[in-house]
Amino acid sequence: MWVFRRLKQFWWPYRRTLYVSVISMGLLTAAGLVRPFLLEQLIDRVITAGDFGLLWTLSLAVLAVALVRGVFNYTRQYCGELFGQKVIYDIRNALYQHLQYVSFKFYDHQSTGDLMSRLTGDIEAFRTFLTEGVTDTTDFFFSYGFGLVAMLTINARLTLVTLILSPCIAITVRQFDRYVRPAYSAIREAYSDLSTVVQENLTGIRTVKSFAREPHELDKFGERNEGYARTNIVAQDYQATYWPLMQLISNLGTVLLLWYGGRMVIANQLSLGDLVAFFSLVGYLIWPVTELGYLINLLSQAAAGGERLLELLDSPRDIADRPHAVTVESVRGDVRFEHVDFAYDRGHPVLRGIDLDAPAGSVIALLGTTGSGKSSLVGLIPRFYEATGGRVTVDGRDVRDFTLQSLRRSIGVVLGETFLFSASLRENIAFGRMDASDEDIERAARVAQAHAFITELPDRYDTIVGERGLGLSGGQKQRVALARAVVCDPRVLILDDATSSVDMETEYEIQQALRQVMDGRTTFVIAHRISSLRRADEILVMDDGRIVERGTHEDLLRADGMYRAIYEVQFRDRDALAAGGSGAHDLPGRGGAGEGRAAPGRGRGPESSGPGNRNGALHPDGPRPRGRTRPAEGGSA
User: Fold this and answer.
1) DSSP string of 45-77?
2) Residues 6 or more apart from 282 whose CB is under 8 A from it?
3) Which residues are CB-neighbours of 619 under 8 A, at least 6 positions away?
4) Which end of the chain has fewer CB within 10 Å, C or N?
């Protein structure tokens, strides 16, 4: 019962509705007790004594009792359902709200299928107990208590005979509860595992088909499905054992009652009407006890589901507003990292001693191998994660001093993994700023080079995209995501590999358009192509959570370090690069140091854009290529 005490905050406000349901249940049971006594009068006074004048009175009394019971039954059912639905409504809202405000770290350790299982199956198990189990439990106590009193008023000896088997019943119920409660906990866990497999498969079905892994997925699903079926069979095995045993015990009680009661009637120690009435009341003792198994089922499922709901509600909101956090309408965009350390888990540092100064309006580019800490670094600015050492500041104030809402409204984030909602393109672009006008939405789409393909769709901006943006190409989805960030007019812009899914010519178009957007905004760019970040004010080369090199493109080439090595890998095929052009992917900025210069000591470099270049100068300040450029050899670093 500790689960229900812990969840008291949700059901206590609706206790009056619960009280009405409980009282109605009591009155319903009490009204039902009148019928055996009416039956007694019918047998002893009408049938046996021949007083037929009482027949109409008794008949009308039976109808009146039925009518009263109908009213009480309606009230009990309606109020019970109303109570359960209101409580579950509040729990579901609280869970959903909690999931909105937990940090990225929480989702790093949770599967979507498990969360969906908790929000559906576990909540439904708890609702069933609230709407049915509570009133049925009340019915158990009322029926047993009222029935016992009524039976004692008819004949105490018969009542004692009926209660002889009560210890056997109590032991059986106790054993059933001991085994069935863990069984239902196992069912909830198995259902969660099954839901996770289904959710992951449906989300990644294209990957499954691409690698022809359908047999593997079928085996994995079959294993989870078998586990879920097995846990249900175990629980049903307990029930299948319990019910016949309870029926046997109750029938033994009936046999004892008939044998002893019949002897009393024959000996004129009890009237036939009293025996029939008593026999009718036995159900008030036997039936509630046999129904204990059903109640234990409901309670066990609700307790198992409630524990999982509490696990979710008790998960910490480790990133939240400080007590006196400041709300700001806008920021200048000065960003600093002061001796910042960060680790997802203790003992496994991801960032070490990061020092960085990004003045307002500057462009900072980050380059490094996968896992070097680039995304983790920029994720500390909007407080997706919390620095474990040092501090991150915006405009000289610790980011933890801002409210999360106002801080994140000032920061635009475009991730390499693009997510679109199953809604219109208009709604997706305006997601971060729901009051955006049609002009604002179109302007942002133009900047992100999305307007052209949107106008070619059947319903233009009202076109509904499928789940996760299905129906759009990777590049189209990424341009919509860029427009979504642009429409918010952020002072700090984070582009985390934001053009990874677009072709090189489209990347050039987006970067050209972003020049005006980035002007005056502090921009952090994570990219794998050196040509995409060479014109940044400062380039940071990261390795193993540290900044190992920093400077402009030309400075880093002269340093002959890790950046130079990456540069040579990406541009080793100079002939292919010359044919495709080198500058088409220059990061929009205020002019690139080293643009059009050869690498020191290497002669004429592959990025040279002089007359010898086959297609002419292909950087933002030069003419556009007429055809699609060839990608540089070497791929990403």
Assistant:
1) IIIIT--THHHHHHHHHHHHHHHHHHHHHHHHH
2) 147, 151, 162, 253, 254, 257
3) 582, 583, 584, 586, 592, 595, 596, 609
4) N
Comparing C-alpha atoms, which of 149, 153, 95, 98 is closest to residue 127? 95
Q: What is the pTM of this model?
A: 0.68
CA atoms within 13 A on the CB side of 549: 20
Q: Tokens 């920021």 identify what position?
A: 331
pLDDT digits (tens, 9 = 90+) for 363-405: 999 988 888 888 889 999 999 888 889 999 999 899 999 998 8
How far apart (Å, rounded) are the C-alpha atoms in residues 234 and 229? Answer: 9
Q: Residue for token digits 């002269």?
A: 558
User: For tokens 């089922």, what's the residue?
Assistant: 297
**391 beta partners:** 338
266 HSE (CA, 13 A, CB side)? 6
Find tokens 């190992």 and name the residue: 548
CATH class for domain 2-313? mainly alpha
Place of tokens 């009340």: 138
Bridge partners (DSSP) of residue 394 are 335, 397
- Which tokens belong to 72? 């009480």
CB atoms within 10 A of CB 70: 12
DSSP 630: P
Burial environment of residue 52 by CB neighbours within 10 A (0 to 12, 13 to 18, 19 or more): exposed
544-600 residue pLDDT tens:
889 998 998 888 888 888 888 888 887 764 444 454 544 444 555 444 433 333 333
**538, β-bridge pairs:** 364
Residue 297 and residue 301: Cα distance in Å, rounded? Answer: 6
End-to-end Cα, the chain, rounded Å:
57
- All structural domains of the chain with their residue ranges: 2-313
